[in-house]
């Protein structure tokens, strides 16, 4: 299965997976590949490793779109551009309020409200939610042919997929109307029963100023509810579009395979478009075992002619041990990867691809290109078989 046509017809790739498996690396490598093939590409990264951010020049740009210089790369097709941005969750949330506020006055009041500032800090902390908001903004601009979304390592994978709904749920009309009715009648002095007790207690615990801020905040937010709900639906539509592809990245470790498995079940359950599975950092080994003495013994003895014979023998023995270790690791990696693949074969569409563990960290354009080659220049297995 050739992944090049798959990438050509995709407009948004979302990379999800456990912490540290290589989501940011994979997202950047896919984006670079898109740019090399002549597409105007944007990768939205979250906390990239410092060395990678440095070498891409992202450090100087912060959360603004930064164009990555590809002039040193050979074979960039005409039109190919690589842009990158790091997520700034806080300013994304403020921008969201700017967009949905019905008037300048309401917007300014909300942005200055203490309760909003507190809530914004809480929501800005959920980078997954903010990333989905930001990518929707970038997609709506329509200036890029391909978008690649990196995601943060979330402990509960559900958070990422459900996060766009969190605000809407938080602003659920029933909660709002209860509070609004309560705060209105508390001002008019016509409150009975539970509401009266609750408002009295809230006032005692948090102070009158806080209750006033909270009431004002809810009153202002009342007008935003519809805007949020509409936007939430649009964000969901974007994630469900057939030109969007979710890719789950894992490493050959039981825990990250479990997380990948969880994501795959979620794709299935939520009818999200599944692109495939990438098993990253697989120990590369042809699968053949070699006898070190018969492969290297003669060479070692002739090269080490002036050394005591025991030295050559010891070097060969150590290399043999290292090879056996690598072989064992590679076999274990393949067994884990095969287990994951067989669990989803025939259940989900998409590809299954392995990317070898590189000698060094993947921290610059040439090494990202290497990862891209491993992904796109060798056939992947289809999940459908
Ligand atoms: N195929 C690979 N070979 C060698 N090193 C790799 C490979 N893929 C990723 N790495 C290295 O592994 C480290 C983690 O990668 P990366 O930052 O992409 O993971 P992540 O899943 O985004 O992590 P986090 O969950 O913390 O965001 C980095 O130092 C990266 O250079
Ligand atoms: Mg990352």
What's the number of structural domains? 3
Fill in the CATH topology of the largest domain: Rossmann fold
CATH H-tier superfamily of the largest domain? P-loop containing nucleotide triphosphate hydrolases
Biggest β-sheet, characterized?
A: 9 strands, mixed
User: Which architecture of the largest domain would the CATH scheme give at its second level?
Assistant: 3-Layer(aba) Sandwich
- Which ligands occur here? adenosine-5'-triphosphate, magnesium ion
Strand order of the largest sheet: 3-4-2-5-1-6-7-8-9
Order of helices and strands: HEHEHEEHHHHEHHHHHHEHEHHEHE
Indicate the structural class: alpha/beta
Beta-strand level of the residues, as a percent range? 5-15%
Whole-angstrom Rg = 27 Å
SS summary, helix count: 17
User: What is the arithmetic mean of pLDDT?
Assistant: 83
**What is the molecular shape?**
elongated
Low-confidence stretches: none
Number of beta-strand segments: 9
Quaternary state of this entry equals single chain
Can you tell me the CATH class of the largest domain?
Alpha Beta
Which range best describes the helical content: under 10%, 10-25%, 25-40%, 40-55%, 55-70% or over 70%?
55-70%
Calculate the terminal CA-CA distance, rounded to whole Å.
11 Å
